[in-house]
Design a protein that fits this description.
This protein has about 150 residues and is α+β, with helices and mostly antiparallel strands. The protein has four helices and five strands. The longest helix has 15 residues.
Length: about 150
């Protein structure tokens, strides 16, 4: 197999992301890509094989007040033509290295239980099976109560 190259993208790479729309669930937008790449603690990695973009990963640093930060693997995608060729593993290795450079204690991801290919790949990459966790979600972020916003001194 040919070597997988992983790049950490910056604002100069917006066109590259837009050209690789097939890697994403929905087509990326200029505004969305720029917002992610400008935001501190948000990282977009692209993997390529022989100059062809083959996958991506988005990592987000999660800060805590009582312990070191962690890297959240928000999204990982691999082009169907490049699956089972080490692309996802290379992306995870690069994200682990970046997380260490950024002072993160570890990486975590949320995976639906029936996504067996993803779970198997994460296991091959050395992920541990943590304590059982329940993830809750809200479909709307509209506030239903009242509160008084207080600016910090």
């Amino acid at each position: 197999m040919n070597a997988v190259r992983v790049d950490r993208l910056g604002l100069a790479d917006v066109g590259r992301v837009l050209a690789a729309a097939h890697l994403f669930d929905d087509a990326p937008t200029v505004d969305g890509v720029e917002a992610l790449l400008r935001r501190e603690g948000h990282h977009l990695l692209f993997a390529s094989v022989d100059g062809v973009d083959a996958g991506f990963a988005v990592g987000v640093e999660v800060l805590h007040v009582d312990r070191a930060p962690e890297m959240y693997l928000d999204e990982l995608g691999t082009d169907d033509a490049f699956r089972r060729r080490g692309v996802a593993l290379a992306l995870l290795a690069a994200l682990r290295q970046l997380a260490g450079q950024r002072g993160c204690d570890g990486i975590w991801a949320a995976v639906v239980p029936d996504n067996e290919p993803a779970l198997a790949m994460y296991e091959r990459a050395g992920a541990a099976d943590p304590e059982p966790t329940v993830i809750v979600a809200w479909d709307s972020v509209q506030h239903t109560g009242s509160f008084e916003a207080v600016e910090p001194p």
